[in-house]
């Protein structure tokens, strides 16, 4: 909102300006010493590297100063902002959709890959080929309007529960990351999610859960067709891949949607490596963060030896290039919002 | 930026709050009567329909109130924000690129479609087939990194001049539209350009000229490939169409990039019709604007009988559905920023 300052308010404006300067100043002093900044992050090198970077790019007298418009941060979603075990949460949505649809498709009970899903054989599900998954996605995620899909996603997110924690999936998010998003926003960053998950699925909860609006969500997508239904123009989701927002697809889509390189990237697996490299190679100073799932008791422990969220090459690259490896065990004072704080 | 309010500042904050309320209040009174709102728009039904709509969706006690996050406005670029005659300005860029490249490709002097361009035969250029254009775009717009293309575009925009006005193309923008963009932003709208032009070409000037950052520019695009060049990861533009952001492609890309329907759309030709329909069919109140080029002396006059910027079906649909048809002759008090105000 633009506010005009008529002559008679000039004195009040000067007072206000001093007040703002004072408040901002006391705040930046507070930041260096006050444990209320990122309270769910333990003190240590990870937290320090974040605070140090943000101070460096936001201080106007810093040689690394970045104007607000260029403070773009990108976050992977699965395994970075929320958990991704026992498998990607969108997989549970797919299974529940299939179960709801089977009454109209009784033949699926004897047909693969549907049968495996309906029987709940998790081992077999984890071994699905890409072709199986594409077929399942086509059946459960397309052939309806974008708006109908949004309603389905929102309803499911309200009612479904994570099998380990018996809570809605939208609560299985990392409390330290929610605080980091707030902290970055407070420092003028614009945050984008860059997810291998479906763009419309992530958009169904990103605003409410992360405060990230749909236009700042990038993800995998199917093609859509513009058409009229019931006298109203709408978009129908087609069973044809638009973009697979994974690995090299991530920087490609960052360029398509954002149009400039981010200065901060946070990922957790080899699927994020290209996005991390692209950000690291910014001509400006950038911060690269990699979440290491090393806490089997509070969350899950996995890296090189897993199918979902495999962290292997990216771990080596992070070590080689000195990126910040964030350990859930060491750096997260609290993991989920529902965990008791010590 | 988040500012913490310690106890001792409470009184100052209260004073500040009253001040802000007072300033905002005096402003909203001013808006209804003050001709300083949209000064380059003549008083009349077009200007009224804009002011009335914005007041209606921003007044919190209005039944049509729209929360700020959903105040999405989309603008076509060619012919809506800047002129598009004698042909799309990006065409001049293409021609200049080709002329600069011909010294390394002397064979083009005898080869079509290059020869037509190099000889400057505008009639023949206007008659190019889509295949010709795709070939010319491939040669002039791809095979380089995104960053190299950005540099080429920015340099060209600095030096090239429009043949009629002998001024940089970035000055051939509509002054009333610049004011409308500011007015919408001041009222909490987030504005996106949705252009048939190349996404990276439009991004090269959108921030400076319109105040619209690259992540709010949607346009036609070629595919890109993530690769390492000179030890640095980068994206290379490929001679393969990614998306043609025109006609039905516009709502498709609005959904892909924004993820919700706009409540305001402004276009000028049949190429924008699908975008206008998509916005008009929002379940909320929406405003649809169509710019009619009817001023041959100050700008250009054309509608049903032209190749570039043809306005035919969309004009009928606008009349039928009661959309706001903005006349350059009648509604624009001033056309370009360099025009003298009366």
Automatic annotation (TrEMBL), chains A, B:
It comes from Pannus brasiliensis CCIBt3594. One of its GO terms (molecular function) is hydrolase activity. The keyword RNA-binding does not apply. This is HAD family hydrolase. Its EC number is 3.1.3.-. The keyword Hydrolase applies. It comes from the Bacteria. It is an enzyme of class 3 (hydrolase). Keywords: Hydrolase. Belongs to the HAD-like hydrolase superfamily. SerB family. It holds the Pfam family HAD.
